[in-house]
């Protein structure tokens, strides 16, 4: 890009974790490319996407990692968590089990990741309100108890997706600067 390449002040690695099919890959597609697909194929291979944004006049490059469809505890290796300064812990508001598993994902995170990692709990698919199986209050309570930020999102309708990532990035930025 020669002279046009912006100066990057910070690169922040963020990992997406949570059960299979909760919408992690679609949240990333929505945030990084403003895309969404209803029949997204299972993620193949560990991959990340980047998005550069301005926070307090600084250029911040978010490098967001998506799991390789190996969403079982301990299958996600410590290399995935290495260097991560943020984590999005995602469940599906229509799948109680995906929320009940949040405690185990959190335990994995606390075992493998840096102790100062910023964690955002995300209840995705909030467009499917009539199928809701996880009351917002349950998640709020869990988030408060575990000291997590919390937001409900819809990758489909683009609700709170930008806001969830940018809030996490702002917290990370504050901790880093
Ligand atoms: P992952 O396994 O966690 O990466 O989940 P995917 O991103 O592959 O999504 C699994 C399925 O849920 C796909 O069919 C998506 O289209 C769908 N999905 C993802 N996010 C949303 C959402 O916000 N609302 C609805 N209704 N469906 C979603
Ligand atoms: Mg995926």
From TrEMBL:
- Asked whether the UniProt record includes Nucleus among its keywords, one would answer no
Question: Taxonomically, which superkingdom?
Answer: Eukaryota
Please give one Gene Ontology molecular function term for this protein: GTPase activity
Q: Which UniProt keywords apply?
A: GTP-binding, Lipoprotein, Membrane, Nucleotide-binding, Prenylation
| Gene Ontology CC, one term | endomembrane system
Annotated membrane topology is:
Lipid-anchor
Q: Where in the cell is it found?
A: Endomembrane system
Q: Which family, according to UniProt?
A: Belongs to the small GTPase superfamily. Rab family.
What's the protein name?
Uncharacterized protein
- Per the UniProt record, the source organism is Daucus carota subsp. sativus (Carrot)
Q: Which residues of the full protein are shown?
A: 5 to 181 of 221
